[in-house]
Amino acid sequence: MTEEKQEQQIQPHIHEAYADGILNIHFAGGMVRFDFMTFQPGSNDGNGNLKKQMTQRVIMNPQGFLTWYEAAKQLIAKLEDAGIISKE
Questions:
Q1: Spatial strand order in the sheet of 50-60
Q2: Mean pLDDT across 30-45
Q3: Would you give the DSSP letter of residue 34?
C-alpha cells in the first residue's frame, strides 16, 4: 500500500459523527465555528417541522476554513456533474 493510501485510511482514534446539517457558521475569537445539528424525531417546532438540536461544534482557524471551502467547492462540482445535486 502506498504512503498516500495509508494516510487516507481512517485511524481507529478518529471520531466520526452524523449531522443533518449546519445550524450556524460564525466567526468568534479569531476562529470559524461550525455548529452542526440533527433533527429531533417526535419533537415539532409548532409549524409541523422537526426541531433542530445543536449536537456538536467544529472550530478551525481561518486558513483551515479556506482549505475546507476549496475542498467543498470541488466536491459540490463533482456532485453536480454526477447529477446528485443541482444548483437550482
A1: 21-28, 31-44, 50-60
A2: 93
A3: E
